[in-house]
Design a protein that fits this description.
Distance between the termini: 58 Å
Strand content: under 5%
Number of helices: 6
Largest sheet: none
Helix content: over 70%
Low-confidence stretches: none
Structural class: mainly alpha
Number of domains: 1
Radius of gyration: 17 Å
Shape: elongated
Number of strands: 0
Mean pLDDT: 90
Length: 99
């Protein structure tokens, strides 16, 4: 195993553990998100923006807070997919201040 494979496995394990804990403790996440898809999504974001060394410098509480924000955004964005066209119009009007 190469060093980069070991680092990738360590990052994946850490992200998986945090996502699993957040999913277990929050029914909203359980209802709205698929656990493996969420792990994959978070991993791709982390891989894109942070090196393994930078990630190691973030403590678990801080990382869990960041992952929670990502999960919340993903869950809320998915809720819009369930809106009817009429509900979407009301939502758009409310966001634009027309409602």
């Amino acid at each position: 195993m190469t060093q980069s494979t070991i680092e990738k496995n360590a990052v994946t394990a850490r992200i998986s553990r945090i996502v699993e804990n957040l999913m277990e403790s929050d029914r909203f996440f359980q209802k709205k998100l698929d656990q493996q898809e969420t792990i994959d999504h978070v991993f791709s974001l982390v891989e894109q923006y942070l090196s393994p060394e930078e990630l190691q410098g973030i403590d678990d509480n801080d990382l869990a807070g960041r992952i929670r924000k990502i999960m919340t955004t993903k869950a809320v964005a998915g809720m819009l997919d369930d809106f009817t066209p009429e509900q979407m119009e009301i939502f758009d009007a409310a966001v634009e201040g027309r409602w």
